[in-house]
Every structure is written in C-alpha cells, then in structure tokens.
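REQUEST FORM: STRUCTURE PREDICTION
Request ID: SP-0412
Submitted by: Lab K.M.
Chain count: 1
Length (residues): 342
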Amino acid sequence: MADALLERLTAPAAAQDQLAPIPWPAGLAPTPIDMAPVDPSVPLPKADVLVVTWTAAEAQALSDILTPGHQVYGWAKYAEHWDAYRPQLTGRSPARDAECMATYQLTQIGSKRVLCVHSQLHLATDGASAPIVQLWAQMVAEVQPSLVITTGTAGGIGMTTELGDVFICNSAKFNCTKTFAGKPWAQQRFMNTFTPTGPNLELARTSLAQINAAQLPDHLTPRDRTYNGIPVIVFISDNTGDVETVDYFGFDDTDDSYGVVKDDPQAHTEEMDDATLPLALSSLTDPPAWLSIRNASDPEVPSSIGTLEEQSKWASNIYQQYGYWTTVGSAITCWAVIADLQ
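STATUS: Completed
RESULT:
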C-alpha cells in the first residue's frame, strides 16, 4: 500500500500557471524582501508575523500569493542546530532528504514584516520525540512574532464542509491514537483569544477568494453532490469549533471510520500538525497569539466507495488535483488577517 501521507506531503502543485492575478488594495500587496544568500546554520530573521505551511502544494500556493516572484524552491534553507534534529528523524521524515528543518522567505504586507516558512518536520512522520515542537519553540524565540499562523490543506469534516472552504480557528485539539497516544497532551485542547476582524478579511471573504474559485470542480463523484462554486471563509471561535490534529493519516468518511467526529464533534477540519504550535507555546511565559487557517482540500469521503484504502485513494486524487487551488484561499486569508493588523 502506498504511503498516502508522504504522497500528500510531496505531491507537486497542479496547473498553478493558471492562477489569476489578485487585485490587492493599494499599499497592501505582498512584496517579497530580497535576501542575500543565507547560511542555513544562522538564526531566522525577526518578523511581525510567522506563517508556516507544510506540504509541497501548500508551499507553492503560499509563495505564489505571499512571495510572488520568489518561488518556494528558491527559499532559504533553515538548518540551525541541525545535528540536534537529525537523530529525531525516521526513514519517513521529509527533513532527512531535505537536510534541513524548513525553508523560508521574508515578505512585506503593509507595515508588517512577515516570515513565510515551509516546514519539513511533521508530527506523523518524525520520531517519538516530536521534534516539530522543538522547532516551533526555536522559531518563535528567533523570529519574535506577535502572531503565528499555521496554514494549509486539511481534510474536511462533515457534509456541510465543501472543497475549498477556509476555516480560521483559535483553538486546536489533539486526537493522537498512535505514536503519541501515551503523551499527556494526546487528547488536549488548546485555546487562545486572538480574534481576526477587519475590512480586508471581509474583502477576502466576499471578493478575493472567489477570483480563482473557477479552478474548483462543479461536481465530485461518487458523492453526487453539486459544489456551489463559492468557497467560504469562516472564523470559528474557541467555543464553537476546532482544528483537529491527529498522529496518523486518517480522514472523515460518512461512517466516521477513524473516529474524528466522535473525538471532536465541533471540529471542521483535521490535519497532522497544528496543535503542536500551542503545545510549544504553552511553555512560554509571554507567548504570541496564534491561529490555524486551514482549507478543506478534500471533502468528507463517502463510505460507499469501498474499503478504507479505496476511500483514501479517492481523497488523495482530489488532493492532487485541488490541493494547490484550495490553498490559494488559505493564503489569501492569511494575507487578510495580516493586512488587518495595520
């Protein structure tokens, strides 16, 4: 059986050359900051906002939207204290092949300096020491941001979550049943009070996120459910919803085979990294605010498709086609949240 998780982490973006230009408001267009060649072993630069994404398709979308002209394959490598991370990796760790923990690029949005990061560390691929938690603490100490955003694709939960919908969450819950089942935080829920609001978030919701919506399908079979063509951007407050972080490759199907709905009925998306951020921040005396901004890159899977392996293939095919295009919405939402901090 193919490794569905690694396929998602490494799958290239599809047809991104068809991206329609975004009409940014005057003075708020993302403007990459040219960086001289960077030694991978040096600390990260300081920034007002730290934005971290995870898969190849996500990173491509983030670079196209927030660092235009500076493609992700040209971002600087980050390998400070690499020798401390290397023993914590496994044969499935993308970081082992990349020989770094992440890549990064600075950009400017209005008055805010933003550091965009593509992480190569992942809760579900690396060792039982969870080096991603260590990486978060290291990055936050160096960047000293006032806001940290983790963003990208996620599996949609429930029939009401459609392909491309974007959920902004200030709460995250672990649902670890494999490698980390014995950890004290294996089922912990984290919250913070940061609430995004402002005219740019409204602009993203009503206009900017719709510009490339035509790249999403009108129809998904065998669901036989018409897609309305309008992805939504929803803020889910800490008492009405979560992003659910699991330590395995699972998804929501109509039988709730993996128990993601049973574990967290108020979750709208599930993925494999976000709750590691507040876990890392929980040890700090004055942590920055944080958000999860996730897009539904594949919808709830109809159990009628067949076995879990067959369902996984169906969901993965959708991800490979639309992971990039759904992440465009998340990247625009990241821009909106940052633009409203002016």
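NOTES: Residues 34-339 form a domain with the Rossmann fold fold (CATH 3.40.50.1580).
Reviewed by: T.R.
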